[in-house]
Amino acid sequence: MCCVIISYMNYYLSVPLNTSAEQTARLQALQHAFAEVCNALAPVVQQTRCWNRVALHHLAYHGLRGRFPQMGSQMVCNAIYSVSRAYRLVLQHPASPWNIANHPEKAIPLVNFLPDSPVYFDRHTLSLKGGQLSMYTLDGRMRFQLELKSEDLMRFQQDKLREIVLTKIVQGYQLSFWFSPAGEQEDAGAAVPVSSAELPEYLVVVPGDETGADKAQGLAA
C-alpha cells in the first residue's frame, strides 16, 4: 500500500496515486480493457440511435458480459455509463458539430475510445473505509492508505458522490471525485456538467457515413 495526498476545490477531489511498477501495470491493463468494452458498445449506439444509459444497458449488457468475461459485471455497467456519457456530449451539447437536434438528418457517428480513456468507478468497484481505499482491478482489489483531512472525510460521508474517474497523468494515475451537495435533486442518468464542447483527447469521432454499424449486431440482438 502507498500513501497519497488529496487536494480539493469546491466539489472536486483530485487524488494522485503513488503506485509501484506492478500497480501501474495493473491499472493500465484495466484501463485498456475498459476502453475495449466501450469500443465494443459504441457501434450499438450508432446502429440503434440509443444512448440512454438504462436503455443501452438492456440492449447490450448480457452481450458484453459474454464477450468480456474477465470484466466484472459492475465494471461493464460503468463502461455503459461511459459510452452513454460520451454520446451525450457528442450528440447533445449545443455547440457540438454532431448535435442531433441541429442535424437530425445526419447519421449517428461512431465514437472511438483510445486506450488511455478514463475508467469510471462507483461505490461497488471502489470504496473508502477508515482512510483505506479499495479499488477493483482485473486481478483483484488494489488498496491504498489515504491521509485524509477531517473536511475530506465529511465530504465522503455527507455529500452525494456523483462520479469516480481513474485517469492517466504524466506522473502515473490519479483518481478524481465529483460530489453534489447533500439533498440536491438530479437526474439519475445525468453526467457531471460539461462546460465546453471541446472533445476530450481520448475520444475520436468518425462520421456515420464512414463507419460500419453492422459491427454491433452481436451485442444488440
User: What is the radius of gyration computed over CA atoms, rounded to a whole number of angstroms?
Assistant: 18 Å
Mean pLDDT: 84
Element-by-element helix/strand order: EEEHHHEEEEEHEEEH
Q: Give the class from helix and strand content and strand pairing.
A: alpha+beta
Level of helix content? 25-40%
Find the count of extended strands (DSSP E, 2+ residues).
Answer: 11
**Structure annotation, total helices:** 5
Give the percentage of residues in beta strands.
Answer: 25-35%
Largest sheet: 5 strands, antiparallel
Kindly give the count of domains: 1
Unreliably modeled segments? 1-9, 186-195, 211-218
Question: Outline, from the CA principal axes?
Answer: globular
Strand order of the largest sheet: 2-3-10-9-5
Distance between the termini: 43 Å
Structure description:
Strands 2-3-10-9-5 form a five-stranded antiparallel β-sheet. A four-stranded mixed β-sheet has the order 1-8-7-6, with no helix packed on it. By secondary structure, it is α+β, with helices and mostly antiparallel strands. It has one domain. The N terminus is likely disordered.
Write the layout of secondary structure elements.
Layout lengths: L2 E3 L1 E3 L2 E6 L3 H28 L4 H15 L5 H20 L17 E4 L5 E3 L4 E4 L2 E4 L6 E6 L2 H9 L1 E10 L2 E9 L22 E4 L10 H4 L1
Parallel strand pairs: 1-8
Antiparallel strand pairs: 2-3, 3-10, 4-11, 5-9, 6-7, 7-8, 9-10
Helix pairs in contact: 1-2, 1-3, 2-3
